[in-house]
Write a structure and sequence with these properties.
Helicase, Ruva Protein, domain 3; alpha+beta; 5-stranded antiparallel beta sheet; ibrinogen binding protein from staphylococcus aureus fold; 23 strands
């Protein structure tokens, strides 16, 4: 669900309760389109707020997540600190039920006079923005500056007067009456009931419009002009009850899931149309938005930061694939080498029987059991001995080529498997620390230059393996990169711990801490195997083979690339990767 006017209304209500009267202590800008503030509440303590103008996930809510901040604050952050740091939050508004949040802050100006600044978040998809204005409505700055070249309708620049985004002539649903509703419905032509609701009233998303239709017992795709008076009354009753719930702040924040654990949507009101879906309820709207958006924002951030490495790896994988094709072609070309040797030997055996000047010579193939006749091509310009030597030379060249090819094929295959394992690690990366470790690994493997740390630059945090607790209480560790796989398997795991890995498929090393037990519960084995399959290249496959053996049976060959090991005396379990099962496991 987009963050519509209903969700905005709910979060404004929550922020007013939590933040009014609080003073803004700290202001940071962790990423280009996001501000975080720490607000000190008298008698309660500090609360953190995130305000994001991200084009994909714009929002504002309380947060408990600590974000890394840049060493030097961006310009907009500096403007914010200058004008509202230390200021008191006196009001939080949602004008006309729009997707706009105004935080009003009392703070001192350069003359020491107390004035009211407005911090305005416009939740408008790709046009989302965060704007700071003075007491007269003049723009002090915005997190995204909009010039005349970008928009001829509305400039957003320092010194300009702030004006609200262009109105779509929609009505405030909180002020609707039965008569006005019935008249608006009657005047619709060519629209469906769902379209009528979200195109007529502000703050109602298509999915919420569908929910109102569902509550009325009507099909959202019904045509407005075919709606009876009785059905129109049912629709208004459902609409009015929804607005009453918003006015009374009777919210029920929840995320709805499919059976496989995939998120369908979130909502702040009860969604009867999702009756058959699983749902996870939250105590607050902020907790809902934090849970829903944090993982998505982080995934987008990681994808963006990993883009250069992903491109590098994909280019090298493509190079290995092309090299493999050339090697297969070369192998096909050397396929007849034994025949060349045979022809050379048969010519040598019949050297005095080959007539002068012929282009072919037929003889008995003594190497075959039934001794068939064989025809050998002859170069008439050469003697029989020279023709025999030509075949031997061709055979010896192919023999040398094949010997070198086998080495090259092995090296190329190892490199391809390694690159695919790095690509899999990139897909599973959760944070900057994971990316930093993968970058270090690529530098050590010679694929990229090692980055020189600048003076005063913070050292990246060390990435740690994922840690799960099985339903039987056993600790399960999962590596997130090849360097981490080596560390986990060769140095962290005990000899009697159980080691798991997808069979002949790039993936994470998984360690079950056995605590010295020789046998483990079946549920723990299946849960660990599911982790190994899920954090592998085969996560979207079925019946994935996962090998397991005691850690003492796993060895690393000399000179092997990071994460590459060999093992003996293993068993195999087949598992269908289940993301929902992974999400349900306890983590620490």
């Amino acid at each position: 669900m987009a963050l519509d006017g209903i969700t905005t209304s709910a979060i404004v209500s929550e922020l007013k309760t939590a933040l009014l009267g609080g003073r803004i202590d700290k202001i940071h800008q962790p990423v280009a389109d996001e501000i975080s503030m720490t607000v000190s509440i008298p008698g309660i303590g500090a609360k953190k707020v995130i305000i994001s103008a991200n084009s994909a996930h714009p929002r504002v809510h309380l947060t408990e997540t600590n974000r890394e901040n840049p060493m030097t604050a961006p310009l907009f952050c500096m403007v914010m600190r200058k004008h509202i740091a230390g200021g008191k939050i006196v009001d939080i508004l949602q004008p006309n039920f729009e997707r706009i949040v105004i935080i009003r802050v009392e703070s001192a100006n350069e003359m020491g006079d107390i004035t009211t600044k407005n911090l305005i978040l416009e939740i408008m998809g790709k046009h989302s923005n965060l704007i700071l204005t003075d007491e007269n409505g003049k723009i002090l700055d915005s997190i995204k500056r909009v010039t005349h070249e970008k928009s001829s309708v509305r400039e957003v620049l320092p010194g300009k007067d702030y004006v609200f985004p262009p109105s779509q002539d929609k009505k405030n649903p909180l002020e609707a009456t039965s008569g006005d509703f019935a008249l608006s419905l009657h005047l619709q032509e060519g629209r469906k009931l769902q379209e009528f609701l979200y195109q007529t009233y502000t703050g109602i998303s298509p999915i919420m419009a569908g929910e109102i239709c569902s509550r009325a017992g009507l099909d959202a795709s019904n045509a407005c002009q075919e709606t009876t008076i009785e059905d129109g009354e049912k629709l208004y009753e459902a609409f009015d009850q929804t607005m009453d719930a918003i006015k009374a702040e009777n919210y029920l924040p929840a995320i709805y899931y499919q059976e496989n654990g995939k998120i369908v949507d979130f909502a702040v009101l009860e969604m009867t149309q999702f009756g058959s879906l699983q749902k996870k309820e939250f105590e607050t709207i902020s907790a809902l938005l934090e849970g829903f958006y944090h993982e998505r924002d982080n995934a987008a951030h990681i994808r963006q930061k990993a883009q250069d490495m992903r491109k590098l790896i994909m280019n090298n994988i493509e190079r290995c694939v092309k090299k493999k094709e050339i090697q297969l072609k070369t192998r096909r070309e050397t396929k007849g080498m034994d025949m060349w040797k045979k022809k050379g030997e048969l010519l040598t055996a019949n050297i005095y029987a080959v007539p002068q000047g012929v282009t072919t010579f037929k003889t008995i193939d003594y190497y075959e059991e039934d001794m068939p006749e064989i025809e050998i091509a002859i170069d008439p310009a050469k003697t029989p001995a020279e023709n025999a030597q030509k075949y031997f030379a061709k055979y010896n060249k192919a023999k040398r080529t094949l010997a070198a090819l086998e080495i090259q094929e092995k090296q190329n295959e190892e490199e391809l498997v390694y690159l695919e394992s790095v690509l899999n690690a990139l897909e599973n990366a959760k944070d900057d620390a994971d990316l930093s470790e993968i970058r270090t690994e690529l530098a050590e493997s010679g694929f990229i230059r090692r980055q020189v740390q600048k003076k005063g630059q913070q050292k990246p945090k060390k990435s740690k393996p994922m840690r799960y607790i099985s339903s039987d209480g056993f600790e399960i560790l999962v590596g997130k990169s090849n360097l981490q796989n080596d560390e986990l398997t060769l140095r962290v795991a005990d000899p009697t711990d159980l080691w798991m890995h997808t069979k002949d498929i790039p993936g994470s090393h998984v360690i079950i801490r056995t605590n010295g037990l020789s046998e483990l519960p079946e549920a723990t084995m299946e849960e660990a195997a599911n982790l190994a399959a899920f954090y592998s290249k085969a996560k979207n496959s079925s019946m994935v083979p996962v090998d397991y053996t005691q850690r003492k049976n796993v060895k690393k060959p000399n000179g092997a690339k990071p994460g590459m090991v060999i093992y003996l005396t293993n068993k195999t379990i087949y598992i269908h990767p289940d993301e929902n099962r992974v999400n349900q496991m306890k983590t620490e």
